């Protein structure tokens, strides 16, 4: 095996490990939100440092491969795609940590109203995000662009839940003014989850770029 092939294989392994870590971060943050589990939220916050460490390592590895081995064609597209995927994964880790911090800072005797959680479809949104994230990873591991483009359809559901939640939370705050802060916090959490979905679609775009040399940004996604 050529040295550049070894380096690219190691890069793929590192990205896959970061994928696993960020998936666990979102899953645990979501469970902490749904159950008001502050210990689980604390774990997510502590593990954010590992996400940041992976980002720095992968950035450095991508830069070294380009500088030292001058990859071309599909190898170059792979390294460039992984550089951008890495950035998106790190931001997704930030969003998971943000959700965990929200849970940690809630008073012990004042959890989010379970009815509001249900009406805003938070659990459904979390499930959709985990499915999107798992699908992008499957597309990455199998190098399958069709799997990658399947993410775009699922993101429509996430966007729908986000839009509907705004009005639901506004009505809740009006009816429960003493819990207005909780409504505002939950609105922020749902927005973070919507942005998580956006980064999933960004990753899918980068995978299509690597596999097919196609650019899907700015409205060029398949219907």
Annotation keywords:
223 residues, mainly alpha
Question: How is this structure best described in words?
Answer:
The chain has 223 residues and is mainly α. Helices cover 85% and strands 0% of the residues. It has seven helices and no strands. The longest helix is centred in the N-terminal third of the chain and has 33 residues, at 3-35. The radius of gyration is 19 Å and the shape is elongated.
In DSSP terms (H or I, runs of 4 or more residues), the helix count works out at 7
Strand content: under 5%
Quote the average pLDDT.
93
Spatial separation of the terminal alpha carbons: 40 Å
Mass-distribution shape: elongated
Structural class comes to mainly alpha
Secondary-structure element sequence?
HHHHHHH
Main sheet overview = none
Helix content percent band: over 70%
How many strands? 0
Radius of gyration: 19 Å
- Residue stretches low in confidence (pLDDT < 50, at least 5 long) are none
In short, what is this structure?
With 223 residues, this protein is mainly alpha-helical. It is 85% helix and 0% strand.
Record the SSE blueprint.
Blueprint: H1 3-35, H2 38-69, H3 73-105, H4 114-119, H5 122-142, H6 145-175, H7 180-212
Helix pairs in contact: 1-2, 1-3, 1-5, 2-3, 3-7, 5-6, 5-7, 6-7
